[in-house]
Structure formats: C-alpha cells, structure tokens
Amino acid sequence: MTAPDTPGPISRKQLSFSLVPEHKSIKGYTSTQWHIHDLAPGASGPEVLALQLYMTERAAYRFNLESPTPRLFVRAGFSGQTPTPTALTASQEVAASWLDGEQQVLEVAMPEAIQLWLEAYLSHHGEAPVEGRKKKRKGAGRAQENQT
Questions:
Q1: Which residues 6+ apart lie within 8 Å of 109 measured at CB?
Q2: What are the phi and psi torsion angles at 118 (to 5°)?
Q3: How do residues 26-70 score in pLDDT, each as one tens digit?
Q4: Phi and psi (nearest 5°) for 70?
Q5: 3-class secondary structure per residue, 7-67
Q6: Beta carbons within 8 Å of 100's beta carbon, 6+ residues apart
Q7: Are 90 and 66 in contact (CB under 8 A)?
Q8: 69: left (phi over 0), alpha (psi -120 to 50) or beta
Q9: CA 20 to CA 34: how far, in whole Å?
Q10: 12-26 and 29-41: which strand pairing?
Q11: pTM for the whole thing?
C-alpha cells in the first residue's frame, strides 16, 4: 500500500477584519479615512474575505514579499463612498488595476503567517518564469524595400 500524494499548499485562506474610520479635519473640511483593523485568519470578524492565490500572479507576490513592508490590499467599492469590502489580494498589480477602475483600495501590513504561507505557495509552484523581450522575426516592423 502506498501513501497518498501530499497535496501542495492550499491556495485560498479566509481572513477576517474590521474597518475603522478615522476622521480628519483640515482647514474646516472633514474627511474620513478608513483603516483595516484586527486582521486575523478565519471567519470571526465582521468582514470576511478569501485571499485566493493565482499562478499568474507569482511574480507580483514575489515583488510584494521582497518589499520592506509586504502588504495586503482590499477592494472596497467606489472611491468617495463608505467602503464595502469585496475582494482581497496580495498582488500590487491587481490593486493598481482596481485603482485604475476608480475603486477604493485599502491596504494593511501582511501578517507574518500569511507571508510564510505565500512563500510556501511559491516554493511549491515555483517562481514565475522571467519574461524577457521577445525577438521579432527578421525584418518585422520595417518597411519592405521594393526592388524595381
């Protein structure tokens, strides 16, 4: 009898947190900034989202992990509205695309346990291949010379 194959690290974790408003007043104008608070594994908080890892985002995960302070990013509805968390990512590229779509993005320091889990995912699945510049075929992009 052989032992079953050991599955690799799971690619999905539930995280819970709360959103805390911070009111700031500058020259008579009041604004509210929202912050992620009490980020914890599991579904015990008022807000619960799944952090899903994708093979196509491995380079972005590595970039985030190598930054001085790795971050998690929460898509929280449209800018200027009360935040409604709808998605969670560890990819700065995904977070940037949300911002380009005028979505509100909140960020929080990535807990060490999530960093280790992300490292295990990258170790199991390998680093993303380095994509160098692709060579064009000879003569591509040049006007053809007509010999008459």
A1: 69, 70, 71, 72
A2: -65, -40
A3: 888 888 899 999 999 999 989 999 999 999 999 999 999 999 999
A4: -60, 145
A5: CCCCCEEEEEEEEEEEEEEECCEEEEEEEEEEEEECCCCCEEEEEECCHHHHHHHHHHHCC
A6: none
A7: no
A8: beta
A9: 6
A10: antiparallel
A11: 0.79
